Structure formats: structure tokens, C-alpha cells
């Protein structure tokens, strides 16, 4: 993989040229930033920026004022290759708080499939698609158990996407009998070469048994069927080693900087 070329393609397709991530969301270019605005339960934030030492503080202040006028908390999604090099420190000085850093991993879909031909669910597990409110509830249930966070916003966004644009989101659940033990999502953006893998999680009692790998392999095959050449993940330290064994490569880092309550 040509890391520099793929990273430039990712920035162009998925950040600077980003599409709204759900009904009611709007993406716009405002000078040196690309931002999304959505409702209170949607994702509001900065997707891409082209800043330098002279413009950064002014643009940061402008975005704080803009989202403040809307009454929304928001996120500045900072990538490790963004400029200026001290942008994270500038965001912190302006009142943002940094969440844990993750690694931007990208894998070629065909290579991920090649490296996981026998990645089937472990014995006793079946993988099903979540396509309705009952399925969304299963995804949220796993999310809350695996990550210990509230799934209200996830449920709202997933149901909205399934209702308005079902062809752009794939949600899958791993079931042990009728009990959900793993879940994950994939976002398909028509016209781009990337599919984004999100929210992959396994409840603690089933970790280390191949559930996560099976969900990655399942989504890779779906992405290939839709013509997406690359898979992209913002990987935690827990998932990164698994993904690298499946052919993913580190291209940068991502850090959410949050502003508001």
C-alpha cells in the first residue's frame, strides 16, 4: 500500500468531500474547514481543516461561535497529520477536551478477505443483519455492555439511517442463541472507495473467541460486493492488533476534541 497516496485519497473522499452521515445532517465548507451540523442527537463537528499558524486560533474561535449559536456541543476530529502541528494544543487552550487517541487503519478490502477466508463465527454464534428497531436495540445493547456508555444517540442515528437510507449502513449482530454478544456497523458512502467500520464490540465474556474477527470479515465481504476498495477503522488499542493481522495498516491517528458539556 502506498501510504501517502491512500491517506490523501482518504482525506479527499472521507473528510474534505464528506457526505452527511444521516437524514437531517448537513455538511458544508466554511472557509478553511468542512463541518457537519445535525440535531441534538446527531453528530456535530469539524471533519477537515486546512489551517496554518496564523489562521488556526481565529478559525477555532469562529467554529466555537458558530456551534454555540446553534446551541450544540461539537467535536473537532483531529488527525495526526493535520496542520499546524500544534493544533491539538491550540484546541485545548480554547477549551476543548481531548478523548483517547485512536489509530486510523486502512485495509484493502480484497486483502482483508484474503487473510480471513476461514474467519467464521465461533461455534454457537450466528451473525445476523439488524434492519429494524428490534435489531437496532440488539446493537445498542451490545454497545452499552461492551463500552459502558449510553446508546441513546447510537439508536437514534442507526434507526434514522435504516429508515431513510438503508443502503448506506450495514449493522450486524452476533447472537449466542438469542443473546447478543457482539455487534458492529459499516457505513457505505456511494461514489467513494472507502467503507467505514464502526462500533465493533464484544461483551466481555465472549472476548478472545473470534467474534470481532468474524464481524470484520462479514463486513469486508459486504463492502466488496458494493465495490468499495478500502476499509477504514478508527481503532482502539484493543482492536488494532486484530485488525493488523487481517491486513490493515496504520496511516495516521485520530483524536476527538470535544467542546461543551
UniProtKB/TrEMBL annotation:
GO molecular function: acyltransferase activity, transferring groups other than amino-acyl groups
SUPFAM superfamilies with a match to the protein in the record: Acyl-CoA N-acyltransferases (Nat)
Domain annotation N-acetyltransferase: ranges: 126-261
Alphabetical list of InterPro entries matching this protein: Acyl_CoA_acyltransferase (IPR016181), BioF2-like_GNAT_dom (IPR038740), GNAT_dom (IPR000182)
Pfam family, one: Acetyltransf_6
Annotated protein name in UniProt: N-acetyltransferase domain-containing protein
Lineage: Bacteria, Bacillati, Actinomycetota, Actinomycetes, Kitasatosporales
Amino acid at each position: 500500500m502506498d501510504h501517502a497516496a491512500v491517506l490523501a485519497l482518504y482525506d479527499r473522499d472521507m473528510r474534505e468531500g464528506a457526505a452527511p452521515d444521516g437524514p437531517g445532517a448537513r455538511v458544508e465548507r466554511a472557509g478553511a474547514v468542512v463541518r457537519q451540523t445535525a440535531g441534538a442527537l446527531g453528530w456535530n463537528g469539524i471533519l477537515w481543516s486546512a489551517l496554518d499558524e496564523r489562521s488556526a486560533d481565529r478559525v477555532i474561535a469562529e467554529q466555537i461561535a458558530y456551534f454555540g449559536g446553534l446551541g450544540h456541543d461539537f467535536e473537532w476530529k483531529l488527525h495526526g497529520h493535520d496542520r499546524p502541528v500544534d493544533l491539538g494544543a491550540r484546541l485545548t487552550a480554547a477549551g476543548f477536551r481531548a478523548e483517547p487517541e485512536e489509530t486510523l487503519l486502512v485495509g484493502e478490502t480484497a486483502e482483508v478477505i484474503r487473510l480471513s477466508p476461514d474467519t467464521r463465527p465461533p461455534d454457537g454464534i450466528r451473525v445476523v443483519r439488524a434492519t429494524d428497531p428490534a435489531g437496532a436495540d440488539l446493537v445498542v445493547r451490545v454497545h452499552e455492555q461492551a463500552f459502558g456508555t449510553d446508546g441513546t444517540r447510537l439508536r437514534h442515528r442507526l434507526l434514522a439511517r435504516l429508515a431513510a437510507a438503508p443502503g448506506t449502513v450495514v449493522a450486524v449482530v452476533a447472537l449466542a442463541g438469542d443473546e447478543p454478544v457482539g455487534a458492529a456497523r459499516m457505513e457505505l458512502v456511494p461514489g467513494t472507495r472507502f467503507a467505514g467500520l464502526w462500533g465493533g464490540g464484544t461483551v466481555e465474556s465472549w472476548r478472545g473467541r473470534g467474534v470481532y474477527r468474524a464481524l470484520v470479515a462479514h463486513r469486508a465481504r459486504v463492502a466488496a460486493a458494493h465495490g468499495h476498495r478500502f476499509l477504514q477503522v478508527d481503532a482502539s488499542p484493543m482492536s488494532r492488533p486484530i485488525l493488523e493481522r487481517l491486513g490493515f495498516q496504520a496511516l495516521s491517528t485520530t483524536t476527538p476534541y470535544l467542546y461543551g458539556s
